[in-house]
Design a protein that fits this description.
Elements (H helix, E strand, L loop, with lengths): L10 H55 L1 H5 L7 E6 L3 E4 L4 E2 L2 E13 L5 E2 L5 E16 L2 E10 L5
């Protein structure tokens, strides 16, 4: 008796081949999804950092316009929000931009009586009315970015 071999693909080979291809596709799509999600998160962090930096630049603009009017009277440790009405203004009304909320906080600065270095408030420190500690904080759904600096009344206005 003669046996003949049939040529072609058996059902088992088709199932194994389909499983290998499906596994490869799932891996590729998962990698793509992770990279897109990571890219979006990084984009939001960059945008938040730019909003925070813009906030500090706006505060510098207000300082240059008039320290006495725009910076000196602001309450320490209070939250202020930037508004644009033909120029920058600070208000206590919450405002958001594209899902980002930018908060500006001013704090008093104290200096050591001897060294004149900035120190925390203590009996041997004097209040410096010409320097403010400024914090620009941007909050969005997935995180927070904070930038801090010192602002001085360098134009004496």
């Amino acid at each position: 008796m003669r046996y003949s071999r049939k040529q072609g693909i058996g059902l088992l080979e088709v199932v194994i081949g389909a499983a290998i291809i499906a596994t490869a596709l799932v891996g590729i799509l998962s990698s793509f999804n992770i990279s897109v999600h990571g890219g979006l998160a990084n984009t939001q962090k960059i945008q938040a950092a730019l909003y925070a930096e813009e906030g500090l630049e706006a505060v510098r603009y207000l300082r240059d316009s008039s320290w006495t009017t725009n910076i000196a009277p602001l309450a320490s440790s209070s939250a202020y929000y930037l508004d644009w009405n033909n120029g920058w203004t600070l208000s206590t009304t919450i405002s958001s931009n594209d899902g980002f909320t930018r908060v500006i906080i001013f704090d008093d600065v104290y200096r050591d009586d001897v060294s004149k270095e900035i120190v925390s408030a203590n009996p041997s420190a004097s209040f410096d009315s010409n320097t403010r500690h400024v914090t620009a904080q941007v909050v969005w759904e997935d995180g927070t970015t904070t930038i801090m600096t010192y602002l001085t009344n360098l134009l004496d206005n």
